[in-house]
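Example 216.
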Amino acid sequence: MRVVLLGPPGSGKGTCAKIIGGLYGVPVITTGDMLRAAVARATPLGRTAKGYMDRGELVPDDLVNSLVAERLAEPDAANGFILDGYPRSPKQAEALEKHLQKTGKRLDHVLHVELEDEAIIDRLSKRRSCPRCGAIYHLENKPPRTNGMCDTCATALVQRDDDRPEVIRRRLEVYREKTRPLLSFYERRGEIKTIRGDLPLDELPAALRRVLNGRG
Ligand code: AP5
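Predicted structure in complex with BIS(adenosine)-5'-pentaphosphate:
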């Protein structure tokens, strides 16, 4: 199973990606998490990426393309992957195409997770995430069992630096300018499927299964 998830920030791509990865037993590759890990380790990539991420801008294509190419070359991605947050620009879509051609594989699905701006801003301001295992929570819709602690690894949850209102607004603009045009690119090839990002969380696994099996 090879899936790309597209959609505005906070629409629920990461939440859907984790569910699909679990349903089909394939690795979830989240460029945002990989970049945040590089920032936390203060690697050369992380030091460069931090400024872009703090401003809500895209990290330059060549850096992200190399990061993803290395990850896709790992053995666990040979039989499938869920790409969450990549590609995000025409140059990244081209790089993915080249990788697929080189390996003789094709995408099974490009899933568009749709949500309006108002819901996105409300949602991101209440998101908390685990800096250790990447689990995603929401103060109202998906609170952790113990306040402020990850259910899976008991690490203190954090609010992402880029979930401040002014940065969220910039991320939405960048999405419209750079990433949304990819929807038409994949639409022309008949590869896009859409799922609403505001479905109740307990209905998501079944809804994703239906959409991916062509019954959505
Ligand atoms: P990234 O980490 O990818 O952020 P994003 O695309 O802005 O998406 P988010 O992670 O904010 O949201 P999401 O859609 O995954 O929603 P989630 O499931 O968490 O990127 C961050 C930055 O890194 C970028 O700005 C850029 O600088 C850089 N970057 C990353 N990839 C790059 C690339 N390819 N090229 C260049 N730069 C790149 O859900 C949000 C909240 O809603 C959560 O609290 C969740 O619990 C809740 N929720 C989700 N679904 C539901 C539901 N159905 N009902 C109720 N609540 C829900």
